[in-house]
Design a protein that fits this description.
- Belongs to the cytochrome P450 family.
- Its main location: endoplasmic reticulum.
- This is Cytochrome P450.
- This protein has 2 domains: 181 residues, no CATH class; 273 residues, Cytochrome p450 (Orthogonal Bundle), CATH 1.10.630.10.
- Strand 4 and strand 5 form a beta hairpin.
- With 483 residues, the protein is an alpha+beta fold.
- Strands 1, 3, 6, 7, 8 and 9 form a 6-stranded antiparallel sheet that branches. A 3-stranded antiparallel sheet has the order 2-13-10. It has a two-stranded antiparallel ribbon with strand order 4-5.
- The chain is built from 17 helices and 13 strands.
- 41% of the residues are buried.
- Helix 5 packs parallel to helix 17 and helix 7 crosses helix 9.
- It is globular.
- It binds protoporphyrin IX containing FE.
- The site of protoporphyrin IX containing FE has 26 residues, from helix 11 and helix 17.
């Protein structure tokens, strides 16, 4: 402990933490941890850590090494075969979009709570890919499934004080902990029931959806992936694919309410390129530069998953001469890249045009990374947790170029990032998430004027942190059929 303390102080710059509680008091004083981290971006400091969540589980998110490689290959291939980049994903998203259009057309003047609606939309697209069918939004089983996902996510937020300071867990009501475990088991049970139902009509020669792939794998001796691993990966996809996409869609709507001029420009482009007699397709993306730029700008300024997920160092590393010990848990702050004034001009200003060239064509940026770091030479803030001390500390290390860190590690940049062990990490649902944002956003703008439910309401762009995502504060809006 002393060694950790001393080594850390010698090697890594930062303010002195309080004994035992580290920088927890500072964190407790803030309502918005992400904002605090941003304010401290150039000032390294020590903070307390959060407990290792979901310890002992094995699935795509919670596996490493060869097991992870096999699981990743399987999941990525499955997502590809069943849609990502192909027509069928488009059809599955269209199915959900048609439901939305129908629903909004019938409930024209009703106020819609975006925080209640979009989790259903995102979750239904994942359901469609996994089970081959969507749920009715009013289906009690579906509502319960979503409530459970939400509850578990809230209970496990890394920003809960007891996650920063595990000893506080003794003060957490056992009821809450017990409820989280029970709801997690209930979610698994719901998925288990679906698997059993699909088993009755399963034909190994006709693979219909992700579950069929799972069933085809079941019981195979030579399979590199165990049944329980695949089962847990389905659970992962549910959790990882619902909150993130729903959060991003909520941000999209919020920015359209806040910036009606941008909404008008997006709609004008959609109507000019596509008209209003058919739904937008993924292939329309290249004709919709301004829309594309707007979606990128929203994802940049809002950063739905601001700190991605934790990763672990494989060995002792030195970043700019500072020791980051083996098995340290690192969080990379994606938001620090998206709001870095060195790479973005006036990063706090919402301006879709920054993603357009002089001719109005869409312009990519290597500093755009909502789905985690790629191969780019990004500068990023690192948060470091030291896993062996009684009370863990996080250090916001200096901003360092990612390639620098990878060079020190002598590994491929992708291989650098790990979740509690080793393995490259990037969002496996990136293309699916992008497709959902594009198709749902454009389809809604094509048909409806998006307006605030209450014209006097001030919409805040301050986010609300959940497990890994940053969502807008709840707001209400109306979808009015366009004249
Ligand atoms: C706008 C939507 C989305 C955003 C912003 C997002 C963002 C992220 C981020 C930042 C990570 C962490 C990467 C890292 O380890 O550093 C991640 C991982 C992951 N995402 Fe997404 N995601 C989105 C949509 C989806 C969807 C639709 C799915 C569903 C299939 C999904 C499934 C996953 C999974 C399974 C992982 C873990 C991958 C692994 O550990 O290999 N995501 N996502």
């Amino acid at each position: 402990m002393w060694n950790t303390y001393l080594n850390g102080r010698v090697n890594i710059p930062g303010p002195i933490p309080w004994p035992i509680v580290g920088n927890l008091p500072m964190l407790l004083r803030t309502k918005n941890p992400n904002k605090l981290f941003l304010e401290l971006r150039m000032k390294p400091l020590w903070l307390r850590s959060f407990v290792k969540l979901f310890k002992g589980q094995t699935s795509l998110v919670f596996s490493n090494g060869q097991e992870w490689v096999a699981g990743r290959k399987f999941t990525a291939a499955a997502l590809k075969d069943f849609g990502v980049g192909t027509k069928s994903i488009e059809e599955r998203i269209h199915e959900e979009t048609r439901y939305l259009i129908d629903f909004f057309s019938k409930s024209q003047n009703s106020s819609i709570d975006a925080s209640k609606l979009f989790p259903k939309v995102a979750s239904n697209v994942v359901s469609n890919i996994i089970f081959g069918e969507r749920f009715d939004h009013e289906d009690p089983e579906f509502i319960r499934l979503l409530e459970n996902v939400q509850f578990i996510i809230e209970q496990n937020s890394p920003f809960r004080p007891d996650n920063f300071f595990p000893i506080l867990e003794v003060f957490r009501t056992t009821n809450q902990l017990q409820a989280a475990v029970e709801r997690f088991n209930e979610t698994k049970e719901c998925i288990r029931r679906r698997i059993d139902k699909q088993r009755l009509t399963f034909d190994p020669c006709v693979i219909r959806n992700f579950l069929d792939l799972y069933l085809a794998q079941e019981g195979k001796q030579d399979s590199k992936i165990s049944e329980s691993y695949l089962f847990n990966t389905i659970v992962d996809m549910y959790f990882a694919g619902t909150d993130t996409t729903s959060g991003a869609l909520q941000w999209c709507m919020l920015y359209m309410l806040k910036f009606p001029d941008v909404q008008l420009k997006c709609r004008a482009e959609i109507l000019e390129a596509i008209g209003d007699s058919r739904l937008p397709k993924l292939s329309d993306r290249e004709d919709l530069s301004y829309v594309n730029a707007t979606l990128h700008e929203i994802q940049r300024i809002a950063t739905t998953a601001p700190m991605a997920v934790p990763h672990t160092t494989l060995e002792d590393i030195y970043i700019e001469g500072k020791l980051i010990p083996k098995k340290s848990i690192l969080l990379c702050d994606l938001m620090s890249v998206h709001l870095d004034p060195i790479v973005w001009n006036e990063p706090d200003i919402f301006r879709p045009e920054r993603f357009l060239d002089d001719k109005g064509h869409f312009l990519r940026s290597e500093n755009f990374c909502p789905f985690s770091l790629g191969n780019n030479n990004l500068k990023i803030i690192w948060y470091l947790l030291e896993p062996w001390s009684i009370v863990n500390f996080i250090i916001i290390a200096k901003i360092v170029p990612i390639h620098h860190a990878c060079h020190v590690l002598k590994v491929n940049p992708h291989m650098f990032f790990t979740f509690l062990n080793k393995g490259p990490r990037q969002c496996v649902g990136k293309h699916l998430g992008e497709a959902e944002l594009f198709l749902i956003f454009t389809s809604l703008l094509q048909r409806f004027d998006l307006i605030k439910a209450n014209p006097d309401q001030t919409l805040s762009t301050e986010g609300k942190q959940t497990f890994v995502t940053l969502e807008p504060q709840p707001y209400e809006m109306k979808f009015v059929i366009r004249n």
